[in-house]
Amino acid sequence: MYGLGAAIRLGEALALEPVMLFTEQIGERLQRHTVLPMILLWICFIASGSVHAASIEIVLSSDSDEYHQVASRIHEALRDSRHHAESVATRLAQSLDADSNNAVLKDSRLVVAVGVRALKKILDGPMEFPVYAVLVPYASYSKLLDGIEAKGRASIKQNVSALYLDQPLHRQLALANALGDRFRVVGILLAETSDFDVASLVAEAKQLGMALRDIRVASSREIVPALKRTKRKIDILLTMFDPSFIDTQTIKQILYFSYHRRLPVLGYSHAMVKAGALAAIFSTPKQIGQHAAEEIIDALDSDPVRLSPPGFPKYYQAICNAAVADYFNLHVDCSLASLSHPGPQPASGGQ
Amino acid sequence: MWASHCGHLRRMATGFAATVCTLTHMSAAASGVASHTMAEEEKAFFADIPIVMSATRLPQPLLESPVSTTVLTREMIEASGFNEIADLFRLVPGFQVAHATGGHFVVAYHGQEFTLASRLEVLVDGRSVYGNLLSSVQWNTLGIELEDIERIEVIRGPNAPVFGANAMVATINIITRQPYAEQGTWVDIAAGSLRTRDFLLRHAASLGALDYRISLGWEENDGFSVDPGQGPDFDDSQLGNVVFRGAWTPTLVDDFDIQFGLTTGEGATLHPEPEDESSNHDGDVKSHFQFLRWSRAASMEEEFYLQFYHNYTDQHDRVDYGPLSQLAGVSPLLIPFLTGGQPDQTIEAVYADGVSERYDLEFQHRKPVSDAMRIVWGSGVRMDRLRSKAHLNQDDFVDSVSARVFGNGEWKLSDKLSLHLGAMIEHNDSIGLFGSGRIAANYRLAPNQALRASLSSAQRSPSILEEHWDYLLRFKDGTPLNQVFLSPGDLEPEAIVAAELGYAYIAEGGGLQFDAKLFYERASDVISNYRDLDYPDPYFSDGAEIIINDDSFRISGLEGSIRWRPGASDLLSLQYSITKSRRVLSRGGENEPLRIDHDATPTSTCSLLYIHDFDHGLSTSLGYYYRSVLKWVGDGDRVPAHHRFDLRLAKSFSAGHKDGKIEFIAQNMGDDYQEYISEKSGRTTFETRYFVKLGFHY
Fold first, then answer.
1. Residues A91 and A35 in one domain
2. CA-closest candidate to residue B13, choices B474, B337, B380, B359
3. B-chain residue closest to A282, CA distance
4. Cα three-residue angle B692-A230-B125, rounded to 5 degrees
């Protein structure tokens, strides 16, 4: 966002306290205006200079559009809900750099961490407030909480919950099943140390008449050799994000392998499908924001706030790449509408 | 001459620049980079990824292809157990492969070729490796390692509308593995028959946005010389190879492919039959290349590339024929009287001697015009240079500049019917303007079956050597002794017209693929040579071989392949070809009788590769190869039919995070046979060969 840093510094300099109420009044007048979300956020950033916490603090990992879309959707949903009187402030994780004790957040009813960096920043300090992490991958979240436990701070885990960015793998299984009868043996790439519940996925695969093989790798360099070893014993490969071995480079390797060994890949993001995965199920930031807002609204009904256990997004969509489907000689309708559950928000944004 | 060529190139370059400027706007929207400030974890979900499918240059699906295409996959390449790239084409319907010498291979489609097969276009990642010096492809100095090949696409039939001159009868497109495909370090060693000693070290890694692979190889063998005491090695070779390939992706839509390589050492002689077993052989070769391609992929369907490459080969292949007195069958004392005072001396035959270069600049743009139409068009300019005192009888380079414009379109007239049109117009110094074209239709009988029909016309321009060949045997002081080859120049382009009717079937799931085609090919103005006995030689009255456009041939037949994967552990690949051919060979003049050969294309060929994977990393493959009688054109013989069986056993193993593989290979487990020279020589007999290979990856 243009001038954000300057706005934050200005807000800090002016120490604007009553600005949140003003924000709501202006917001009601402008709610039908297309620029409303951005103006609201800009004002909220100015408010982030306040030394007192708002009722709900949304901490963004960075100034990226995807984080703003989540925050904006939460703002809108709360404003239209029974909890419209709750004050909501948005700030960047970077603004907490000088606040190692999370002092600015300590009086909040709820802190929403958008993205891994924001969650890390908050978990690094003392936590006397509930934290709802959104837009965080399952593997990253698990790793962060394991780290907390290792530091002897396991007690704060009960104050944290999450809405994952990824999808439960049974949705990918259903997607593979819908794409064709030929996909009976499904491979899944997992980290060697992953505690992912493979057994339940095996059971789900069995219900669909499919078999599941997990392919374990210790590092990104082992992906291609491991896939080679599977030879032709799998019909399709599911991928789930794991920061210990998946990045842009390894996705390229997987997709390259996919074409040359004629092994279709189901991705975990829209970007993977654009790059050449056969299909994917994913949630847009707006869909994540919508789901998060619904969870937050329910959580605010109780005092203190009581969060649901960590979970996967309930709004999602499925797409496939027609050119790749052609290459694999698949005759499928790439809209895959029947496998999508876009939710109340239009599915167009965020990608 | 050089200055005028530079001016020509500059004008072409200006045209390219204008086109490139236009195309740089092509994907401005697509080049946007998302979420610079996003944390790595979430970036993996939202940040765009380069379009991998475009960079891999996938072949057109079998059911949509307008022409017959065979794809040799990495799996088949490994399972074949072949050590030489040329041997892989034994697995392509209608192809013949011969080891003319220990290190010189002839690869032909439907025969009709001699030692220096000239009518195949061979591309390595889009770089034409057809050489000027010999108007052919030197398969052992391609500048790539067999282990780096990802797959090979062979377009069986004239494909000049896409690949230009030389794609006259078929096109071989060798695609090497992208450096990011797999990273690490590999060490491979091989040893076996013919005193084969091969070593290969490869390393692939990333450096920021640059993925690279470096391959260092050494190949050594003694060729066909098998028995000590039978004479010196005439076709041994020792070749070192360094290859670099880099893939730099500075943005999401831009991709730079950077390649260069160097091959140097002693190559095997090109000539299959030395005149004197005690002769000395000098076969030095040094070749290098540089290749740069910039690709911009706006989407899966739209891509533009601009590429430039340079090939350089300096090759010498000389063999002593023996003393002149012996060759002439006279007393050494008579030689000075017969030759105007020259002493009796050893005469040297020069099969290759000179430097050839190629500079090539090309762009191509592939895009959908509408939902029903997509096109590929492009243009290129090329300069070929050849300097060979021995073969051109002059000290300077002879240059040839050519330019080309091509376009291919595919129209989907309905869900079932598509029409393909392609044309290429070329211009060069010797021929002027000439062109090639193709019209093809593809009809989907069912979602997994297609019929195709095509009619192609292609022309192949004479090479620099064919146009300027002037090869003499000389005395040591340079005085001409005997004219061997002479081209009068002003040759016409060779022409071919081909028609095919094809059928393709792919079972649901791809477990069974069947492809067959009925074809008819008619070539005219085929460049060949005839012996003009009236040619005025100073000392010998044996005439000279004159290069002319006087041969013609026609071939018809049925060929195809079946690939069947009955289970996850088995693959059966069967290739077959049944043909009928008639070649009318060149005549010396009106009174010479017409010579007709029906065996210049074998009437039947068949190959079969069966692969079976056992558990615990053990796999085996069996190869069977059959070729009926074949009369090679020119210096090759009429070689009898042969059956050949190859066997490969491989065991993969892992130690920690390191992988390894050991292979035992037996080639031609049955009777000895001849591939190029008949039994009279006895020195190019293909006996049973055994090899052991060991590879590590870490």
1. yes
2. B380
3. B45
4. 65
Q: What angle do CA B486, B487, B493 make, to 5 degrees?
A: 155
Nearest Cα neighbor of B381 from B420, B325, B427 is B427
Asked if the C-beta of B37 comes within 8 angstroms of chain A's C-beta atoms, the answer is yes
* Mean pLDDT confidence for B302-321: 90
Number of domains observed in the structure of chain B: 1
Which of B33, B35, B41 to mutate against chain A (most A CBs within 10 Å)?
B41
CATH number, domain containing residue A260: 3.40.50.2300
Give B61→chain A minimum CA distance, Å. 6
**Out of A63, A249, A282, closest to residue B37 by CB:** A63
Q: Which pLDDT value is given to residue A15?
A: 38
- C-alpha torsion B117→B74→B287→B465, nearest 10: 20
Rounded percentage of chain B residues whose pLDDT exceeds 90: 48
CA distance B680 to B682: 6
How many helices (H) and strands (E) chain B has is answered by: 9, 37
Question: A114-118, A141-145, B271-275, B384-388 — which is least confidently predicted?
Answer: B271-275
Greatest pairwise CA separation for chain A in angstroms: 65
The tokens describing B431, both together, are 């021929």
A94 CB within 8 Å of a chain B CB: no
Question: Assign residue B545 a region: left if phi > 0, alpha if psi is -120 to 50, beta otherwise?
Answer: beta
CA distance B270 to chain A (A): 35
Q: Which residues contact A152 (CB under 8 A, 6 or more apart)?
A: none
CATH number for the domain harbouring residue B310: 2.40.170.20
- What per-residue confidence (pLDDT) applies to B281? 67
Q: Which amino acid makes up residue B153? A: E
Give the list of residues 6+ apart from residue B438 with CB closer than 8 angstroms, or none.
Answer: B66, B67, B158, B159, B161, B420, B421, B422, B423, B454, B455, B456, B457
Does B430 have pLDDT greater than 90? Answer: no
Check pLDDT > 50 for residue B25. Answer: no
User: Which pair of tokens denotes residue B490?
Assistant: 């002003």
Residues 469-508 of B with CB under 8 A from A: 506, 508
The tokens for A199 are 């057994």
- The Cα-based distances of A101 to A127, A132, B623 in angstroms read 8, 18, 72
> What pLDDT shows up at residue B57?
52
Q: Which of A329, A334, A351 to mutate to test the interface with B (most CBs of B within 10 A)?
A: A329
Q: Tell me how crowded residue A120 is: count the other CB atoms within 10 A of its CB.
A: 19
CA distance A257 to B42: 24
Query: Looking at the structure, do residues A103 and A244 belong to the same domain, yes or no?
Result: no
CA dihedral B137, B587, B530, B356 (to 10 degrees): -30
Residue A301 is assigned to a structural domain of this protein: no
Q: Which tokens sit at A179?
A: 């794409």
Residues A201 and A330 in one domain: yes
Kindly state whether A245 is in contact with chain B, defined as any CB-CB distance less than 8 angstroms.
no
Quote the pLDDT of residue A345.
53
What is the count of residue pairs from A and B with beta carbons less than 8 Å apart?
A: 156
- By the CB < 8 Å criterion, does A29 face chain B? no
- Residue environment code for B551-560, b if the CB has 16+ CB neighbours within 10 A, otherwise e: bbbbbbbebb
Q: Is B151 on the interface with A (CB under 8 A)?
A: yes
The last residue of one of the domains, among A147, A164, A181, is A164
Q: Which two tokens stand for residue B15?
A: 């045209």
Among chain A residues, CA nearest to B300: A323
Q: Are residues A142 and A272 in the same domain?
A: no
Mean pLDDT confidence for A29-36: 46
